[in-house]
Design brief:
- It is a single chain.
- The protein is α+β, with helices and mostly antiparallel strands.
- It folds into two domains: 1-45; 47-151, GMP Synthetase, Chain A, domain 3.
- Helices cover 32% and strands 33% of the residues.
- It has helices at 47-68, 89-93, 116-129, 131-138; strands at 10-15, 18-23, 29-33, 75-86, 101-112, 142-151.
- The chain has a three-stranded antiparallel sheet, with no helix packed on it. A three-stranded mixed sheet has the order 4-5-6.
- A hairpin with a 2-residue loop joins strand 1 (10-15) and strand 2 (18-23).
């Protein structure tokens, strides 16, 4: 089966560490402000928060896409939690290296009708197909995922 290339566009502007982005062709806009450690005043999530939120939500959305392609899979409620560590040496102080999260741990708990073997296959397929997880892994982040299969209510 062949897919379609989707186009995305954003227009953004701001001053200081506060930035607002309009989604081109849509009605949504998002504001981001540098983390308080970088001069932000906590009026909006930081770009780092959005990057992590993108990973959490993309994991869930990708899981729903995977399940939609296999009618034998039923899903219920998702809980996706993340913990991440960022060494600010490069970002703030200009040290040598790459400014990146050192590690990210994603803990996923989802209600399914799957046995443990099929659930492990499902989780692996979600991780393989999630474009945001691919970005994190490709950037060199130590990305760890922990999946829990809960009985469908």
């Amino acid at each position: 089966m062949s897919g379609t290339v989707l186009e995305f566009g954003l227009d953004g502007a701001g001053t200081g560490v506060l930035h607002t982005t309009q989604i081109v062709g849509g009605e949504h806009s998002i504001s981001a402000e540098g983390h308080s450690a970088f001069g932000g005043k906590d009026t909006a999530p930081s770009p780092l928060d959005y990057a992590l939120a993108a990973l959490a939500s993309c994991t869930q959305v990708t899981g729903q896409i995977v399940a939609a392609g296999d009618k034998s899979i039923s899903l219920g409620e998702w809980d996706v939690d993340l913990k991440a560590h960022l060494d600010n040496s490069v970002l703030v102080y200009g040290a040598e290296g790459v400014s990146n999260f050192r590690d990210v741990t994603v803990t996923v708990s989802v209600q399914t009708n799957l046995d443990e073997a099929r659930f492990a296959e499902f989780a692996a397929e979600v991780e393989r197909r999630c474009p945001i997880a691919t970005l994190f892994r490709g950037s060199g982040v130590e990305l760890t995922t922990e999946w829990t299969n809960r009985p469908l209510a």
